[in-house]
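Box 4.2: Ligand-aware structure prediction
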Amino acid sequence: MKILQDLTLENLKELISSLGEKPFRAGQIFRSLQSGRKISEMTDLSTAFREKLLSEYEDEPVKIIKKLVSKDGTEKYLFALCDGNIIECVFMKNAYGNTQCLSTQVGCRMGCKFCASGIGGLVRNLTPGEMLATVAEVNKINGGTLQKRAVTNIVLMGSGEPFDNYDNVVAFLKLLSDKNGLNFSMRNISLSTCGLVPEMIKFANEGLPLNLTVSLHNPINSERAKLMPIAKAYSVEEILSACDNYFEKTGRRFIFEYSLVKGVNDTDECLNELIRLLKHRPCHVNIIRLNEVKENGLKATDDKSAYRFADKLTKGGLSATVRRLFGADIEGACGQLRRTYIKEEGNL
Ligand code: SAH
C-alpha cells in the first residue's frame, strides 16, 4: 500500500486526472490530508472514489498509540507506522508558540555515544508523507487548522539524522511549506545535523533557508570522535566552512548544539577552543543539559556548571544560552521513549 501524503499537489493532480475525476479534487484532497483527515473521512468525495483511493493508499499512515503529558505541559506521542515500526515526537508549548520535534528515521545509524536513538541502529527512513502526517495529526488534535495552526514551529531534532534521509526530508520540507497546505515558513523550521558536510553544502542550494543547527558537542576533532563516530569522516573545520557557506547562501545565522557531558566536554580546553573557533562567526551556541541514558553511563554536567559554561562563552564573545528543559519526566530525549516502549513489549 502507498501513502497519499507522499504526493505533491502536482502528483495529486496527475493521479486525479488518471482516475477521471475533476481537477479541483486534487487541491481539495491535498488540503484535507494536510488538515489531518483520513481518506475514509473525506465525505466530500463520492464513496466509489474514496474506495478506489483506499484500495491503493493507506487510510492512516501514522497512528498515535500512546500520549504522555509532562508536568511542564510538554506532550510526547508514540506513533505506529503501517509496517508496525514505532516513532516518537514531542510537542512543546512556549510563550512564543508551540514547537513540534519530529523524527526523520526509525532509529539512526550515526551511533553518537550519548544518544538513545542510535542504540539499535537504523531501521528505515521515514517517507515525506509519514513525516507530514505526524505534523498534520498533532496540529489537528491540538485544535489547529490550516488557517490557524496549533503547531507554529517545527524542529527536525527527533530520532534520526535528517541529512542521512536527504531526499525525503527535502520533499517533506516542500510539502510542509506548500501555500495550499500547512504553509510553514522556513523561518519557523529548524533542522539539526550531526555534521554531514556534503549534504550541508548541497542543502544550502535548495532554496529552503531554514535554521541550520549542528550538533557539535566537542570542538576538538579527536575528542569529538570519541562521542560521535561521524567526526572521523568530517572535521570541525570542514563543518565550520560548510556553515559559513550556508550563511553566505541564505543569510541565516547557524546554531550549534552542545550537550554537556561531565568531565568530557565541559573542560576549559573545550571552552577556549569553542571561543577561538566561533568568536567571529554569525552563530549561536545552545548549551543542552545531557539527558542521561542508562545504557551509556555518561553523566550530565550539573546545572550550575552548565550556566557557568554558557556564561564563560558569552564573556568570551559568543552568543550562548542554556536550553530550557522540556519533558524530562516523560523521557524527552531522542529515542528514549520508543526504546522503553519496545522493551516493555518484549521486543528488545
Ligand atoms: N541527528 C541529528 C538530530 C537528532 S538529535 C543531530 O545529530 O543533530 C537532536 C539533538 O539532541 C542533537 O544535538 C543530539 O546530539 C542531541 N542529543 C541526543 N541525545 C541526547 C541526550 N541524551 N542528551 C542530550 N542531548 C542529546
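In the box above, the bound molecule is S-adenosyl-L-homocysteine. Residues 110, 112, 114-115, 157, 161, 192-194, 215, 257, 259, 288, 290-291, 293, 333-334 surround S-adenosyl-L-homocysteine (CB under 6 Å).
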